[in-house]
Amino acid sequence: MNTVEHRHFETSLGTGLPMVGVLTGSDGVRQMVTDTRERTEGTGNNDCIRMIKMLDPPVDIGRMHITPGYFRGSRRYALERCDLLWNAITDMDQNAETLEVARKMLTGVKKPVINPPELIPRTRRHEIPKVLANLDGVKAPKALRFKYPTLERLKRLVADHDFKFPAIVRPVGTHSGQVVGLFNAVEDLEVIFGDRKTEYYMTEFVDVRRPDGYYHKTRLYFVGDEILIRQHIISDEWSIHGRSGRGVLATNENLQAECRAMLVNGFEALPAPTRAALHSIRQRVGLDYCGLDCAVVEDGSIVVFECNATMNFKPNFLNPATQHNRAALPRMLSALRRLIHAKTGLGPAGEGPSTSEADAQTVRA
């Protein structure tokens, strides 16, 4: 029987400020990486470490990289050294084994936990519509998960769940606009019939195109009990992702002005019914650090595209046409400070939720 070695992981600073232990790991990586100077595979993990490292004043960070075989090895992390434990393993579809290890690790630990592993499965594409059901001002389109597609099998699935076409079909575990396509009827899915390797999601399509002919998508973040806007993109295509900003948005000054106003003015400038709907989503999901992709339609209601903690904030603002997105960064860092302080009682509580006037002026310029 092997003797268990308790790993006192290296910290980044040793400042005496809050110690945040961040759990990372992916099912595809079977070797633990305990040297924090060595990069690790981040599939299905968010970029919270990068964001936490941007805090000023800083906090102490200990990365705890785990694998599906963690409990079969001899090394254990000293969780009791942390003031706060943060689960960055956030994609159940890609990292079910590692997420289960994280759940077992944190069971019974008497420390506050950001994004408890047991809450992550409820944010899968086919589960989140059930979680958000019956919220005022919120529509979360029905989604089904399936494998081994044939025409007869999909006909039964659609009938059993009263599923409505048109529908978006994508492989399970994909993001960033990676879709098979938009289909008007189950018979049109012949391109995937007989596929015995891939598992799929099929989501009811809601046409949120506005009278101007464009699709408007907003990405928001839930940080503790706060909400902030990270990005607003407008496109002439229904599948909107980061690269969509290089299309019609890049040359249309009126659309650019709308996006700039959304970011500079921030969450508090949204209509009261919209803010209320978004807070109801935040409360129902129950995660402390989570992203939401949605459309805010003309009546102020929300159509949910995706809601999970795997979304990356990506604080690299390289596109000259979208520098207004920088307005989200100081808000995020302030919200992170408040979240860590609320969970631990340590460190500064942070500034107010809005960017300073100097920051806002820089963005407007």
Task: Describe what you observe in this structure.
The protein has 365 residues and is α/β, with parallel strands linked by helices. It has three domains: 115 residues, Rossmann fold; 63 residues, Dna Ligase, domain 1 (2-Layer Sandwich), CATH 3.30.1490; 150 residues, 2-Layer Sandwich (D-amino Acid Aminotransferase, Chain A, domain 1), CATH 3.30.470. The protein has a five-stranded mixed beta sheet. A four-stranded parallel beta sheet has the order 3-2-5-6. A hairpin with a 5-residue loop joins strand 14 and strand 15.
Structure characteristics:
4-stranded parallel sheet, 5-stranded mixed sheet, 3 domains, Rossmann fold, D-amino Acid Aminotransferase, Chain A, domain 1, disordered C terminus, 15 strands, disordered N terminus, alpha/beta, 8 helices, Dna Ligase, domain 1, 365 residues, single chain
